[in-house]
AI-2E family transporter
Amino acid sequence: MKENEPNNELRIYTNKVWATVGIVALSLILLLVLEATFNVFLLIFAGILIAVFFTGLSSLIHRKSKWNKKVCVSISILGSLLLIVGFFWLVGAQINTQLEELTETIPKTISNAQRQLEGSSVGDKLIKEVTSDESAQKMKDFAGKFFSSTFGVFGDIYVILFIGIFITVAPDTYISGFVSLIPEKGKNKAKTIFQALGQQLRNWIKGTMLSMFVVFVLTAIGLAIMGMPLWLVLALLAGLLSFIPNFGPILALIPAVLVALMQSPQTALWVVGLYMLIQFIESNFITTLIQKKMVNISPALIIASQLILGSLTGSWGLILSMPLTVVLIVLIQRLYIDKKEENKL
């Protein structure tokens, strides 16, 4: 009997080793698959955000009108698309003209700045550093990664839009299908989490759209009063880029300052002051209003998530970092913190 004990212990040890190797191998495979398909998951998540928007709008229409839900869903989808198409149809010609002027103005401004920098030791060193082959390659690599897309820009938008429409038409089907994969004792918890996620994402979308609209209107008014050329396209760019916290306003400021420099350095300073004032109003009033209805997210956490997702996946990661952080916080709150509180009681 004692002779068999070493053999049994060896067999148990061998099984544990193989089990460990199997778990590690499976984890590595899952990580590799996740890395290869993460951009696709981001597109699916973006489609879910579109569905949350359409569903929230259809619910609002249903509450106000008491019409059939299917009719309200159709109105929310078609109405939203028609509004976007109508907006660009009405002002599309002016925006297109200003975009062409912007593409011509920016290179001229850069050349003008380069001429002003030449002749000074600091300027010559800066120009040499920026125009070096190494810097150019770094910028090329960064731009290639940042602006990369899974199916091309229009392909990505097409995929996101149709995923959003399909989920909007039958959201319960997708939620029920996912919940059915969860063990019986966790089904009610899963439904509660889905409801909390939907509510938080709806609050985030409403707040973000309000913020984008306020930034667009204030920027348009300010630039028009200053007599800035290309004010409409610059205001539209500022409104759209405010979707991206922290980095969006900086990206929107760059072309505005370059255009202002074509007028005078004083105009550029006025533009910087205007954008800072609008950012102050948006951060201290609009964002505060949004945070009252959302989970509290620290600015450091938002920046960290943007840096991590932006470096891993490029532009889509940077754009979707905020709603992804909202989802992550809700999941941690519901699955971990609430459970700890229940165990204490």
User: Anything to note?
Assistant: Residues 142-147 have pLDDT under 50 and may be disordered. The two ends are 50 Å apart (CA to CA). The chain is about 85% helix and 0% strand.
